[in-house]
Each structure stands twice: as C-alpha cells, then as structure tokens.
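User: For documentation purposes, I need each entry recorded in a consistent format: the amino acid sequence on its own, followed directly by the corresponding structure tokens. There are two entries in this batch. Please keep commentary to a minimum and don't merge the entries.

Assistant: Recorded as requested. Entry 1:
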Amino acid sequence: MGTVIYTQKGSESVATLKTNYLTDLCLIYRESQFYVMQIPSFYKKMASKYFQFQPQEKIIAYLHSSFIAGLDKRGICFTNKGIYWKSRGMKKGKISWEEFANIQSITIRKEEMICFNDVEKFQVNQNDYSARKLVSLLKKIKKFIRTHSHEYMCQEYIYPCVSSKELTSICSSFQIHQTPDPKDVLSVEGQLCEEVEKEMRNRLYLPAKEKIVAHLNTYPLQKTEGITVCSKGIYFSKSFKTVYYPWHLFRHVSISVETEELKIAKKHSLSLNSAAVSSGEVMLFLKQIKQHVQALYEKEVDIKHDNKFAWKMLI
C-alpha cells in the first residue's frame, strides 16, 4: 500500500503512486510513531506474527503505543480487513470494518483509553501520539465507511507522482532576493543546513528516501516551522502540530488568508505574522504549486477512482 511503481507511457518510464482512501486518511493523521506507507519491517513482521492476519490481508498503518520503541507488542494496526490492538495489561483484540461501521460511539476515558460503545478497548497515550487525534481518525474512518463502504475505502488506485525537478523549479522562482539571506526565508533543495534538515526529518518523520524540495520558514525563532514541500506531499508545521497532505489530496484542499493567518481546509491555521514574506506571496507560492499538481492530474485520463465527494470527506 502506498508504494511507488513505474509504468510505461510510450517510451518513457513514469513513476506512479499506488494507494487507497484508508491509506490517505492515515497519512493525514500521521505523527509520532504512527507509521503509514513506510512501516518499519520489524513492526510489520511482529504484527503479522502476533495478530495472525488472514490470507491476502495487508497492513495499512501501525501505531506503536509504548515508550519502549521496538521492544514489545503494544500497538494498533490498521489493515484492509479491520483494526487490531494490544495494550498494557489488556488482551489483544480486533474488529472488522463491517463491525466497526456499526459502532455507535467512540470516546476517550482518562485521556488515554479508547472506548467503543463505552467499552474499554485499548490505551494510546503511552507515547507522544494524542488519543484525541486517534479518535478523530477513527470517527472519520467510520463516517467514510457508512457513506461509501469498507471495500471502497480499501480499493487500490493509482496516481502519477509529481516531479521533484518541476517542484524545485517552481519553488526556486519564489526565492526572495531582497533579503540579506534568501535561504533563511525559502530554502530549496540543497540549501538547508545539515542540522536543520535532520531536525526537520525527525519532526516530520520523513523516511530517508523522501526528498525535501523546499521549506518556507514562517517563524524565524524556530526554523523547522512553516511550509515544507516534499517529493510526495506538503507539510504545514507549527508548535506541537503538523498537517500533511499527499499531492493527490492537496489539490482538493482549500487555502486562504485571514488577518495574517493561513487557513488550510477551513479548519487548520498557520500564523504568518512573523514570516519574512507577505501573506500574498505565501498564497501565490501555494497556488502555483497547487495549479501545477492539478494540471498534472487533469492530463492523466487513466484515473478512474477520482471521486471528489470522497475526497471532501477526507479533508
């Protein structure tokens, strides 16, 4: 799931992304030991052996819910068949997507215990991942299944990858030359210092193969805050919160500015008060990227799984 494959288009080899709506939902909520697409092999092997998945069952995402990384079996695993879990002092459990769709309530008890229909199922806050964030994801999944179906949510589809070279070109054209050091405002590929890039990768949980194309800093005192353009998607980061959209989803996301606040999907915000560039320039920067991505997908007539109503439910 979420793998890059290559297809032949004429004599040219074209990179494409194989994904599904469940993967996209989990990607949006990815953070702190919640692994999507690039799941460490240790966790995949451990989960497969411990939960004994059905034949043809595929792991979509894995949330390691212990402070001790990689040393125990505590975690929550999302597959194309349902959810599996194991918490401290509790038996392992599972629920199919068919059963999950019929749950009446998903709640939190004592800021860490997730309950289905007021019955305690598993704990979350044994690491940095928020129980409230997980509940938000679970509610979104339930709504999606009830509106469409779990089969539709897990059905695979293919989208073209966005060229890093073209993204770099767009970002480079927006570098601000009036400032003493434009790289402090908008750094394109190769201009981020090693220390900042390492810190950024740790903060965004970027795999080594994911390329950082550019970073627009919005808060000089914290160089990792702002807008980060990567090869597979875009990150909006501020203190204690990061919002992520893969490119095939970002083209559906609304972007606006209200009193120096960048509004993303009408529910997330990023302050531009301390940014060295104007809010208008930030909007122009994002619109140009969005237009490029949109034009790429409009050219791809082979896309048949592009349900705009379904996309709106994700964002």
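Entry 2:
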Amino acid sequence: MNNSEKTSRPQKKIKKSLIIGTLVIIVALVLVIIFYYFNPNLNKIKKFSQEQELTEQYLQSQTLEHQKDQYGGKTPEETYQLFLEALKKEDIDLATKYFILEKQDEYKKLFQEIKNSGNWQMMMADLLKPENQKGEYLNENWYIIRVTNDKGELVANISIEIPKGPDLEPVSSLWKIAEF
C-alpha cells in the first residue's frame, strides 16, 4: 500500500461521516419543521398566544380611552345627578356617556327603546323622586342606588364604580355607571 492510498482512506471516511452527519441534521430539521407546523397543539398554542396579544392591546387601548374620558363625577352621587340631568333633557347620547365605555352602546339602545315605547315619563317619574332612591357604598370603589316605584317595588339597581384596568387598578378618578 502506498502513502496516497493510506491518506485517502481517512479522507474518504471523513467525507462519508460528514455526508452522513449532514443528512442526519437535514432529516432532523425536516422532522422538527413538520412537527412544529403540523402539530395541532402547537398551532393552538400559537393561536392562543396571538389572541392573548390582541386582547392585551385591546385592554391597553380601553385603559387609554378611560383615561381620556371626561364624563362622570368625582363622587357616585355626582355622576348619578349628571346622568339624571341628561335624562331630564331626553339627551340619550349625553346620558349614556356616564356609563362605562363598554356599556354605552347597550344602554343607548335600551333608552331609545324606552323612549320609543312611550315609557319614558314613567321611568323618569321613578328616577326623579328622591324618596324612591337609596344609595350606599358597597366598598370604596363601588356604589349602588336602588330605585323603587311608589308601590315600593324595586325598578332599578344602578351600580356606579371607578373603572378598572386589566390589573384591577383604577384607570380614572371619575365614577361611571356600570349597570342600570
């Protein structure tokens, strides 16, 4: 055996090992890619992660909207009085601005239905009698007003609160109506 044959054998083995190693790496990468893209659980995790990011962006935008919102009072009673003043004028757009942002459209429709049905004056008669209203703090950020009719029947529970962000911390110093 000559020297050239002796040196070419180890080179051939190295070449062969490199080719086999490269093929193993390529096959492994292909398997990882197939596993990643076609695994239904990973796709669900990816979709959940995207939805969570969109939700966080929405909550941040809502927090900014609450911070910019200037409708409401420094006390729950003040918010309620501002709300009643708007209702007296039959200004539904203004009245619903005293609700938390997420509920404004819902209550705009409700008050429009009450007005269209001819029940506006009956609603206002109950809401405007101080003796029909009893308010109390349930905690430092939540106030409730119970409105009854002349027969003593409960006609409305009005929850007024300080809007909170996703971390449950107040995002505004103004009180807003949460439920009517």
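Summary note for entry 2:
The beta strands are 133-139, 142-148, 154-161, 176-179.
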